[in-house]
Amino acid sequence: MLYTSQNHLDALAWLNSTKNIKTLTNLQVQKFLYFYEMFQKVSDKDYTLDSLKAYVNGPVFSKVYGDMVHNETEFINELEKIDPKHIDCENAEESLFLIESMTDTELSELTHVFDMWKSKRDKIDNGIKQIPIYEGDITEKDLDILSQLSFSRPEEFKKYHVIVMQDKRFVVSKEDYSSLTEEHYNTMEVLSNNKNLLNPVYIKIEEDGGLLVD
Known about the structure:
The protein has 214 residues and is an alpha+beta fold.
């Protein structure tokens, strides 16, 4: 028996059909769902906070977590049965871009800036578990941050590819991705050791064949 709400199953069915959920960490799945629901809220569309709790690594939908950890096979099988046609693809694509273009640590730190989580920090530090996050915990500051995030992405997600190298996430157009050479990858490998570069790192191939870091 699964406990995840139908809305969350629908959103994660979209994620699974797009990315294969087994290739993602539990944290990535949780952050995808968190940002999807929050982007739904700021765009005045249907959303749910069902079973949203404050954990050390940020907000977590506890029913989803429980099903993924304790009923993984049944959970994945259920996702594969669902046609996610009712999902808002723009908000889903935006959420997917976030979890692909940042490390797990960065994603966790990003969710820590929201008042809805920060207001629970003392309880978390005192070891209290299963701390609910309610609608009233979401502040205007939270909504403003979410609105800013929704305008900080490439205009068309599907035209971009994310390359993972160590803790760097290089974002390149799919057109340039197909033209990357061994020399370009060697350059990215060197750049991946640059601690001053912040994710996501946008790159493109210049007319002379060089690699431009934006």
